[in-house]
Design a protein that fits this description.
mainly alpha, 3 helices
């Protein structure tokens, strides 16, 4: 009896975790697609109007947000992991995504700083 309840609970937990992982991955991918399209539209619009072009910050924000969702998916994925090999691979993926997020945030910060310096020089 207790084994049946435990097995049912584990099955439910596994099912919910899989749906959550897939949903968070889908959200992350959608943000990347929408952010990229938005950045491309802004880029083309500014090029057509011959305005200064700097979409790195906008695209970087979208990528950083998408990475947060994808890292969340990887964290939830730890519930599904069956053995140490999978856990090791998962840890590497999480570490790489964290490094990417840090680099993107650093790039955004530098781009903002450069844009502010350019505005000061133009005045």
């Amino acid at each position: 009896m207790l084994q049946n309840i435990t097995a049912t609970y584990k099955g439910l937990l596994h099912f919910v975790a899989e749906i959550t992982v897939d949903t968070l991955e889908l959200i992350g991918i959608s943000i990347i697609i929408i952010g990229s399209i938005r950045a491309l539209v802004i880029l083309l619009s500014r090029l057509r109007k011959k305005q200064p072009v700097n979409v790195i910050v906008d695209l970087g924000r979208a990528l950083a947000l998408a990475l947060e969702f994808k890292m969340g998916a990887e964290i939830v994925n730890t519930v599904i992991v069956r053995d140490l090999k999978e856990l090791g691979i998962l840890a590497i993926v999480i570490a790489l995504r964290a490094i990417l997020a840090i680099l993107i945030h650093w790039e955004i910060k530098n781009e903002k700083k450069d844009a502010e310096e350019e505005k000061k020089q133009d005045k």
